[in-house]
Write a structure and sequence with these properties.
- The chain folds into three domains: about 110 residues, Immunoglobulin-like (Sandwich); about 110 residues; about 240 residues, no CATH class.
- The N and C termini lie far apart (about 70 Å).
- The strands form eight sheets. A six-stranded mixed beta sheet has the order 15-14-17-18-3-19, covered by helices on one side. Strands 5, 9, 10, 12 and 13 form a five-stranded antiparallel beta sheet that branches.
- It is elongated and about 105 Å long.
- The chain is about 10% helix and about 50% strand.
- β26 and β27 form a beta hairpin.
- It is mainly β.
């Protein structure tokens, strides 16, 4: 017997410092490399048995009862027919047992001459209780019990879930042999919060029939974040295996290989870049901001310190403010993140949307991306907007009917203006389209209007190929509301 624990297919001793996501399966597996034998039940049908012999016959196996009929046409479902020969009778009994749901689920049932054989599908002990009509003398019953070299057989496996050292809930399954798997995501999703990470741990125990509980181990040192699967990204982030305990919280891996971390093409028009990163130890990092020409030559370089003072979990958020004068001349903005020892932690490159000043406005849309960090896109091509007024009313008090000068029945309680907006992007490369796969799945999207932040509800996101090869435009439609 060798009991092993795995989390997301990683042995428990290595399954630590994970950042797991709320919308991606997180599988806990308890495995016992068990040997053993399969159970067998054999019913040997004898000769001289006829349909009229002593009336009704019945056989019960695994709480399923089959009984005989006197007409072969009625031998359906859980009924069998006693034929003139033993082989035909065995076939009919076999068919009746196959129509018993629990028998069919646990055993392979077949006929060998005059023998009905029920062979267990899995190794280990199973319910073999069998009973028959008291005076039935025409069937010989042979049983071979299944065995399993495991102390966990017929145990209940329990998983206690904790967060911030507080008990959350317990999951439980019955264990037979082999492995036992739990999808932990539904529980973890209830704990996840936007913009931060929440720690959790699992304590796994086995509870036997006598009530004795045995610890099988634990999974500790991990955190859950809001995130989802898109663009062939990570199923989880093994932060402990990341160089220098750092990773940018943005999935930009899909696209053509470039000299920067982002294979996807990123665009900006505004003067700020929100940055999110995961680290257990680095809430403050150095960022070298490079303003590059169309030939990737450096026009100017600034060095800034990005700090996140919240210290709430492993997800950190900060903002890079760009120089308006240098950005006007730049075609690309490169961000190089380093630590105090000047180790390069990661890089990002943004394409500056040209020409600048080609439009009097731009609309930036933000969202929590598939890694839980902040992503954005600046829409500069076109914008259309419509307004709908939603009015909430209540009925006037009947006792005020003759005391008020205004003759009305319904009185306005609240007016809300609902805005429907359509934004269209500039022409983008194919590698710039992948970020919209990320956007369309995000449940947390917002924008700014006149300096105020508004949560928005996406109606649609579409990416269309332009009549020029390999150039695309993206269009999004969304709603938001303002109270008057």
């Amino acid at each position: 017997m060798a009991i092993t624990l795995k989390y997301n297919n990683i042995p428990s001793e290595s399954a630590t410092s994970f950042i797991c996501f709320s919308d991606v399966p997180n599988i806990l597996e308890i495995n016992d490399s068990t040997g053993g034998t399969k159970a067998l039940l054999q019913l040997t049908v004898g000769t001289g048995w006829t349909a009229t012999s002593n009336g009704q016959w019945w056989i019960t196996f695994q709480n399923n009862t089959i009984s005989n009929v006197t007409d072969p046409k009625l031998a359906v479902n859980k009924n069998f027919y006693i034929a003139p020969d033993a082989h035909s009778t065995a076939v009919s009994i076999c068919n009746a047992l196959r129509n018993c749901p629990t028998v069919a689920a646990s055993f392979v049932v077949y006929v060998d001459d005059n023998k009905v054989i029920c062979y267990a599908r899995q190794i280990g002990p199973v319910d073999m209780e069998t009973s028959m009509t008291e005076d039935l003398t025409y069937i010989t019953v042979t049983k071979v019990a299944g065995t399993a070299d495991s102390s966990l057989v017929n145990n209940k496996i329990t998983v206690d879930v904790y967060s911030y050292y507080n008990y959350v809930t317990t999951l439980q399954k019955n264990y037979h042999v082999g492995n036992c798997k739990f999808d932990m995501t539904p529980v973890l999703a209830t704990m996840a919060e936007y913009g931060t990470t929440v720690p959790y741990e699992f304590k796994i125990n086995a509870l036997d029939e006598s009530g004795t509980s045995t610890s099988l181990g634990s999974i500790t040192g991990n955190s859950i974040a809001q995130g989802y699967q898109v663009n062939q990204g990570f199923n989880y982030i093994p932060l402990g295996n990341m160089p220098y305990d750092f990773i940018i919280a943005q999935n930009t891996s899909r696209g053509t290989d470039k000299s920067w971390d982002n294979n996807s093409t990123l665009y900006l028009y505004g003067n700020t870049i929100p940055v999110s990163w995961y680290s257990k130890s680095k809430s403050s990092i150095t960022c070298e901001v490079q303003y590059l020409s169309s030939a990737y030559a450096a026009i100017h370089t600034d060095t800034v310190t990005l700090s996140d003072s919240s210290l709430d979990g492993w997800l950190h958020n900060a903002t890079v403010t760009l120089s308006e004068s240098y950005k006007t001349s730049a075609y690309y903005i490169g961000l190089i993140f380093t630590d105090d020892s000047e180790n390069t932690l990661g890089t990002l490159m943004y394409n500056v949307i040209k020409p600048l000043k080609a439009t009097e406005y731009y609309q930036r849309v933000y969202w929590r991306n598939s890694y839980g960090g902040v992503s954005f896109f600046d829409f500069t091509a076109s914008k259309s907007e419509s307004r709908d007024l939603e009015t909430t009313t209540y009925n006037k008090n009947v006792y005020d009917y003759y005391t008020q000068d205004v003759n009305e029945k319904a009185i306005p309680y609240d007016n809300a203006v609902k805005y429907s907006v359509t934004l269209k992007s500039h022409l983008i490369e194919k590698d710039g389209t992948y970020i919209f796969n990320d956007l369309i799945q995000s449940p947390n999207v917002w924008t700014e209007v006149n300096g105020e932040t508004y949560r928005i509800i996406l109606d649609s996101v579409s990416v269309d190929e332009d009549n020029r090869n390999d150039l695309y435009t993206a269009t999004i439609k969304y709603k938001y509301s303002q109270s008057l």
